[in-house]
């Protein structure tokens, strides 16, 4: 069991959030700390391309709101999560955040190089190699054959 778990979540993918949070509940100590993070490039694009140049502050607040909703929707009532929305290179920011938090484990859901984010595979590889803690990479629901309705 892990005491501090960091999950990188794409707030635009509810199924990914649900999968990651369910896995986290199996891995986290009863009194462990759960951290949810989303990283974005201030110029748009990157690992989580839902933030554009026009209004990064507004989009950051929107992403934080979606992370909060995911946590309230999929976490047991007796559990909570600390939310982190960071701007910059996703791989570097997630690795830095894991170090700052002294995370015991980082959890990611990967779609590999397929799908609409071709750079995501490189980000997952960067995090896996450079993180200061073990990294668990779950396959996406589509890749594991479970689909959204499972």
UniProtKB/TrEMBL annotation:
InterPro entries assigned to the protein according to its UniProt record, in alphabetical order: Rossmann-like_a/b/a_fold (IPR014729), UspA (IPR006016)
Boundaries of every UspA domain copy: 1-139
SUPFAM superfamilies: Adenine nucleotide alpha hydrolases-like
Family annotation (Pfam families): Usp (PF00582)
Highest taxon in the source lineage: Bacteria
Protein known as: Universal stress protein
The species this protein was found in: Vreelandella salicampi
């Amino acid at each position: 069991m892990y005491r501090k778990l960091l999950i990188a979540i794409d707030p635009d993918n509810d199924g990914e959030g649900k999968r990651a949070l369910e896995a986290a509940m199996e891995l986290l100590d009863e009194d462990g700390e759960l951290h949810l993070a989303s990283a974005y490039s201030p110029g748009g694009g990157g690992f989580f391309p839902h933030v554009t140049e026009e209004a990064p502050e507004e989009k950051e607040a929107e992403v934080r709101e979606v992370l909060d909703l995911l946590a309230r929707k999929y976490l047991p009532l007796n559990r909570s999560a600390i939310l982190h929305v960071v701007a910059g290179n996703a791989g570097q920011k997630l690795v830095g955040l894991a170090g700052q938090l002294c995370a015991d484990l980082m959890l990611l859901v990967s779609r590999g190089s397929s799908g609409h984010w071709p750079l995501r595979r490189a980000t997952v590889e960067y995090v896996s190699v450079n993180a200061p803690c073990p990294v668990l990479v779950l396959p996406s629901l589509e890749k594991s054959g479970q689909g959204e309705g499972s």
